[in-house]
Description:
about 45% helix; two-stranded antiparallel sheet; 10 helices; alpha/beta
Amino acid sequence: MDPIDRYHQTVSDLLHQIATHERGAIERVGGLFADVIARDRLIYVFGTGGHSYMAAEEMTWRAGGLAAVHPVLDPGVSLGFGARRSTAVERTAGYARAVLGTYPITPEDVLLIVNAWGINACTIDAALWAAERGITTVAITSPSFARQIPADHPARHPTGRNLADVADHVIDCRMPLRDAVLQFANLAQWVSPVSTILVAFVIEMLVGETVRRLLERGVMPPVWTSANIPGGDEANRGLIDRYSSRIRWL
């Protein structure tokens, strides 16, 4: 197969694995998110690394997305302030603790930690910080990837622990070892990563399951309307009034 067909087939297979094998986990977490929203609390989302950062953006101010979402958009782990800087920060023990300590998250909320790799200091510290405070954590990660990385790899948390082992709920995004999935003759590097697609797929299934659970309870889901369609601004005005005092990024 040519690269287009190979990539299409690989991604399709991975998405099928998620939809089939992670259904139970997604349903459980959707119920948890519905609980949080029903009691008028927030889902905090922390993408604890360079490209994981996009997960918090994916769930924030998104057409068709949940409004009761507070992103942790920290510039330290953002690629927007430097690629090597981002890697250095995500490997810094204690950094996530300092960041999360500035957010008003409580045990009535939930912390979604998104990191497909699931090994770096920022990621593990975020989960440990939440556990120490009785805050429920949900992880979107690839346990199989983390298990294959040597204990002494410099990207690891000092304890050598994996996100899948310290989070309360885990959804496996099925990212393979290299993230990239295509090989070419005469090229050592693999190309065409899949982690962003897999993570976004999990996130949007969670959104749908959360909305289903809320509607079953007779609770109107707080959902954003696209600001790029007629009536979008008007539809969002009530949600802005409801959440802007509690979600700083609004």
